[in-house]
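Before going further, learn to read the protein records used in this course. A complete example follows; check for yourself that the lines match position by position.
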Amino acid sequence: MFIRLMFVGLLLLLPFSNALAAERRTPVVEAVAKARDAVVNIRTEEIVRQRSSPFFGFGDSIFEQFFNDMLSPRSYKTQSLGSGVIIDAQGYILTNAHVVEKASKIFVALTEKNQELEAKLIGMDERIDLAVLKIEQQGNYPYLQPARSDDLLLGESVIAIGNPLGLGHSITTGIISSTKRHVQLDKNFSSVFIQTDALINPGNSGGPLININGELIGINTAIARQAQGIGFSIPINTAKRVLNDLIEYGRVRRAYFGVVPAEVSSNFTHSYGEGGVLIEELLDDSPAEKAGFQIADVILTIDGVEVRSLEEYYSLLQTYTPGDKLNVFLLRGLQMQEKSVLLTTLPKGYELSYTLQNFGFSLKEGQRGLFIDRVVDGSAADKIGLKLGDQIAKVDGIAIETLSDYEAVITERIGRLPLTFLVARNNRGYLIELP
């Protein structure tokens, strides 16, 4: 009889227990359930090669150098861990570039599998800190489709998920404290992030930031390790703009706007309480000219993001590709205007005409490198003393041997002045800055 009463009591408690469990299934629990299977651990292997010598402790002695040249290099592997998120059923993965940039091999571990799968690098952009991988083994993978990040709200609840050890999820929650936070990454480059108080560490760097509906709104990145309680994520709209280029070309193509910008005066900043970028020159037949921009216009925002300096202007433009459309707010005189401009690819030969216009010289390719074949009178190159026949050996520390090498370097640095050139003349090297 007693056992029967206990059994009946347990049956009566079951609905109550289920009700309590249902109450605990909060929106955060629901959101994590939607996203967790798409989060992967990323393990990379880097092969490091070094030569060893029996002459330890001799510094740079001639004996050590002699034996180093003779001995075979020794190799060893280093490993690093990070996270990523699968964004389609074919197994494409979005992660940070710094998670995989030095990898010789890449392996991913899925939550639902007990094995690692090899992945290959499809495309990467180190400046934006985004990379696309693809799982080598064909399959129908769980994924989290990119949503949108242009409608985020201050104070909105968000969840950062990672898989740092391949053993399970790392989940942190927080709120959005800034939807468009400019962060200086180096002296010539900044980026715009979603700022949250959700903890982001190197292990879950590359994993997804999701909203309370379980939608992918950002890619977490560990950039401020010294800051307590601050997390940064690359907005998913930025990732979506460059995603096709990373998959199709393996890199992000540079887009052409067609203005020569300059810093605004301090008087302008004091008058309006904000910075901007002055259009100093408008290039003929460029997207900007066709869209109705004019010399002396001041660009204030691009797609709702404030542009307060040249560095912010160039950094933001690097997150757009040919075919993207910009919505620009500008000041013309005392009137605010909005313009829409369709970006295109750089015109053929633009890098060389850019060199002639900004530095004052042109180049030709010889058997042993690149040589100056014209110096414009009164130009920066002329004033600093460059001559016909001088060899351009490096630009900003990067070795140059062909016109293609030179164009590739200039493409990445259009608008970033001055540039440092290593010039060779009569077996001597000269380091100069232009303009």
About this structure: The first strand starts at residue 39 and ends at 50. The CA atoms of residues 46 and 103 lie 5 Å apart.
